[in-house]
Amino acid sequence: MSEILNPQGTFSDLSVIITGATRGIGAGIAGKLSLLASNLTLGYIEGDDTASALLGKLKKNNPNVIVHKGDLSTREGARGITSAAIENFGRVDVLVGNLGPFLYRDIFETSADEWDSMIATNLSSHFYLVKELLPGMRERSKGNFIFIGGIGSGQVTGHPKSAAYNAAKVGLAEFMKSLAVEEASNGIRSNMIAPGVIDNGEYSNGFRDRIVNDIPMGKIGEPSDIANAVAWLISEESHYVTGAVIDVSGGYHLVRG
């Protein structure tokens, strides 16, 4: 990738919040951006030891990294992490919304509490964060929202055992696109990255052997694949891109049944 720039300054000038940042895709994004010298606020809700270990690792290359524990599915939690970022780094230029647990369960077996949780974490949390960040971004005429969706989030299709999760992610895609239209004149961009099957270190060998046959590129993705796409969307190279859903799936979103 060529030199990473922002329309109003260098990449190192940027203050970035990453949610769901201490494991899997989120940790991969944090690692990539820390090497590019961003000011990072990493959100998480559980796993203090994991968060502490990641913080120690990232600070070896970049001292401008903090972690913040909180429930971002609430307005108070969203206010907490944005306040922490502003207190430490003066402002927030970029939100990477990676928060969003997965639920694999058919509709008949999904409880009302599970449904509410999927909508709150995968959709409402991003609304709360955007509401906190928009006033400052509008004042500076500068801002960048990058949401991490699910595979095929830009498509409305039926997929067994993931109705609650997919409904939230498709809703997030619509939210992202509406935000892009409404805020473009204010210098604020909004996009989504839709990962395919990304190695999180938790897949069984049996699953890996089965799923790889369904991926046109013949391999499972890595967190770095998503991190590289995030870095591009932050960079000046993507300055004319807003309202896009970018599938990073090795072609799996084209053939998933």
Give an account of the 3D structure.
This protein is of the alpha/beta class and 257 residues long. The protein has one domain: Rossmann fold (3-Layer(aba) Sandwich). It has eight helices and nine strands. A seven-stranded parallel beta sheet has the order 5-4-3-6-7-8-9, sandwiched between helices. Strands 1-2 form a two-stranded antiparallel sheet. Strand 4, helix 2 and strand 5 form a beta-alpha-beta unit. The two termini are 34 Å apart. 43% of the residues are buried. The N terminus is likely disordered.
What is shown here, in short?
By secondary structure, the chain is an alpha/beta fold. The chain is 44% helix and 16% strand.
Structural category: alpha/beta
Percentage of residues assigned to helices: 40-55%
Order of helices and strands: EEEHEHEHEHEHEHHEH
Mean pLDDT: 89
Produce the secondary structure layout:
Blueprint: E1 5-6, E2 9-10, E3 15-18, H1 24-35, E4 39-44, H2 48-59, E5 65-69, H3 75-89, E6 94-97, H4 112-140, E7 143-148, H5 163-183, E8 188-195, H6 205-211, H7 223-234, E9 245-248, H8 252-255
Parallel strand pairs: 3-4, 3-6, 4-5, 6-7, 7-8, 8-9
Antiparallel strand pairs: 1-2
Short descriptors:
257 residues; two-stranded antiparallel sheet; 44% helix; 8 helices; alpha/beta; seven-stranded parallel beta sheet; Rossmann fold; disordered N terminus; 9 strands
